[in-house]
Every structure is written in C-alpha cells, then in structure tokens.
Amino acid sequence: MSSFRLFRSAARPRIESTDELSDKLKLLMLFRIVFTVFLLGSTIFIQYGNNLTLLNPPLMILYGIVIGIFFLSILYGLLLPRLKYLLIFAHFQIGIDISVVTLIIFCTGNFSSIFSFLYLLILIYSSTLVYRKGALFMALLANIQYAAILMLEYFGIIQPFAQRFHESTDFGLIHVVYKIGVMFVSSFAVSILSSYLAEQARETSKELKSMKEHVRRVEKMANLGELSAGLAHEIKNPLASLLGAIQMLRDDISFAPHHDRLMKIVIRETDRLNKLLGDFLFFSKTPAGNRQRLAVGQSLEEILDLFQNTKTVQGRLIITRDYPNNLYVEMDPIHFQQIIWNLLLNAADAVGEEGYIHVSAAVGKHGMIRITIQDSGQGISPENQKQIFNPFFTTKPSGTGLGLSIVHRLLESYSARLDVDSEPGHGTSMSIRLKQADPKSRL
Q1: Chain centroid to CA 335: how far?
Q2: Beta-carbon contacts of residue 126 (< 8 Å; ≥ 6 apart)
Q3: How far is Cα 404 from Cα 41, in angstroms, rounded to an integer?
Q4: Tens-digit pLDDT profile for residues 196-238
Q5: Is 332 helix (H, G, I), strand (E, B) or coil?
Q6: What is the pLDDT of residues 23-64, one digit of tens each?
Q7: pTM listed for this prediction
Q8: From the centroid of its chain, how far is CA 318?
Q9: Residue 366 has what DSSP assignment?
Q10: How far are the Cα atoms of 25, 104, 173, 373 from residue 152, in angstroms, in the given order?
Q11: Helix 86-107 × helix 57-79 angle, to 10°
C-alpha cells in the first residue's frame, strides 16, 4: 500500500512545469527591481524633504536595504538557471521579501508606518508561485514578524525611528492588538482569495491549452485522414492482385522446398501489409458503430479483468481501480474496449519490467465523465508529446504507431477528448472526457 501511495504521488500530474515557474520567478525579480527603484526614490524624497544627512540611521538602513535588494536580485538571477528545486527557491525568496518589508516598516515608524500594505502585495504574488499552502504559510510568517515588532515596540524593547521623521504617537495595548488583528484577518483573507483565483487561472489556462491542442490535432487528423484514405485504397488494390497472383503461382508451379518457403514469406508479409492498410483505413474513416448505453464501471471491470490475465501484465504489473458504478456513456462497446485496451497497452509498455497502472473514473467539470489511466513509467518527453498522435510515430522496437491515432479518431467520432499529462521520470496520465448519459435513457 505504501508503494502505491508513492506511485500515485509520482504519477500525479504536475500543477506547473519547471519552465513556467522559472518564468514567474524572472517576473518576480523584475518586479523586485522596480520596487527597489521606487524605494530608492522614496528614500531620497524623505532625505531631502526632512533635510537629513546620509549618516542618519534610518536613512542608512533604507539605503542599505536598496543596495541589498539589488545584490540579491543579481544573485537570484545567477542561481536561477543552476537550481533544480525552484519551488523551494521561491519559498526562500518570498521569506526574504517578508523580512525586508518588516525592516522597512521598522525604519519608517513601526506602529505608525504606512508600509504594512506591502505584506499584502507579497502574499498576492506568493499565491501564484507557491500555491495555497505556501501562501498561507507566508501569511503566518508575515503576521509573526509584524506582531513581534509591534509588541517589542509597545514594551519598549526596541525603539523605532518614527521620532526621526515626526512626533511619536502614544498608543495603548488595545491599539496594538487591533492592528495585529486587522493584519491577521486581511493577510489570510488575501492569501485565500488570491490563491483561489490563481488556481482558477491555472486551471483555465491549462484547459485552454488542452482545447487548443485538441483542435490542432483534430484539424491535422482530418487532413491526414483524407490523404491516407486515398493512398490506402490505391495500395490495397494492387496488393490484393499481388497476393492472388502469388497464391496461383504457388498452386501451379512444381513443389520445391526453397520456392515454397519464399512464397510463404511473400504471403505472410502481404497479409501483414493488408492488416496495416486496414488499420490505416480505420484511422482515415472511423466507422459509426452501434451506440449503446454503457455502464462505465462494469465495462472497465470486464476490460481490466481480461487485460490483467494477459502475458503482458501477469507477474510484473499491479493494476488498481477506482470508479463508481453509476456512470453511463453512449458508445459502441467495441469502440470503448478498443480505446481502453490501446491506452492500457501503451501504459504497460511505458512501465517496463514492473510498476503500477491506476484506472479511475469520475464526473468532472460540466458533467463530463473523466476516465484516467495513470502509469508509473518513464514519462514522455515534451518533444515526443507533440508527435504521439501522428500516424506511424512510435518509440517501440515493434509496432505500427497507429494505436493512439486510432484512439483519437474514435473519440473524435463521439465528440470526446483525450488529454495527455506527462513529465519525464514521473509517469504519464491519459484522460478521456466523455459526455455522460442519462442512466434511465433508452437508445
């Protein structure tokens, strides 16, 4: 069971790719530099507006913060291409930013500082980088630091620089608690809301990208289908004539062992070409099929029972299942079996010597049924992901490369969709989206 949890964790689709996170960190570095320029301008304004010298302690700290942020930005830029764990790097940067804001608040009046809103800005962009849990952790860190400096000021342990710029203001414990409470509520509210919006934006972006890829594949398949149909017919006719002629020759000429062996090779290879052309014709023009109301759970159970007892699976793969019994689709049973079987074969080939395949089904967005086949294999490289639906593309030593092309064409005939989510070294997830049928409907 623990091994299966590890598999599920490894095979689970990634929320965000390394390249996307890297691009966001670059934007954060740019934003940080812009903020530093703003802070530098504000510090210069304070200096000349109050006729202060560079040796003034708060000004020295503010100028030191500006210089420090510039150096950190350069260091971040140098480290970014060399680091592997960018999510940890993002947490580290955000934590440093929160500490810098705490120092700025201390230098600009602490309790009376107007810069406490900078915490909220950090929490907004942190939700796009470290997701909800990370944003909530950063909100907690900001609240701890803010509460600490206010309480330390109240008890006289630290002396803020407010008096340097304006007269100090007396305040009581109730005011301190009130400010801390307001910051606590606002920071966590901003973290929850912004992380929710960021997650929705990520899901929408992923959905749009998937739809765009699906439309591109459909257009490409349609063009290939028209071309392949004519080509397959042109090849099939002379091939049939060739097979007939060879069989007639075999019957007419005198028997000789080496002649018979050569003719058997010709007939065998001709039959293989005929089968390949049949698959190609199936790809070019998928038959309509006999639509029926299918119980998804029952159909998957039957297919998996058969698949689990094949030589491909026995002794090396563990197949797990997670689907309810109340999901129905309208589809030809043969087509449904062909789709699932092809995807299972691909998953089994990807796993290698031993591993796991997890088959699940559930109702997703817009009432669509989502059937997912996850494997613990080596994953698919980004380059190959662009080609896996192309006819005759295959990375296997043997195979026609038509399996996924046929699956795609079959699903297209039912206005369904196939999404692929894979990362090298973390397995592959193939998800089918089908329209849900009314369990009481009759076709």
Answers
A1: 28
A2: 94, 134, 135, 138, 191
A3: 59
A4: 988 888 888 777 777 777 677 666 665 555 555 555 655 666 6
A5: coil
A6: 888 888 888 888 888 888 888 887 787 787 777 777 788 888
A7: 0.59
A8: 25
A9: G
A10: 34, 16, 12, 56
A11: 170
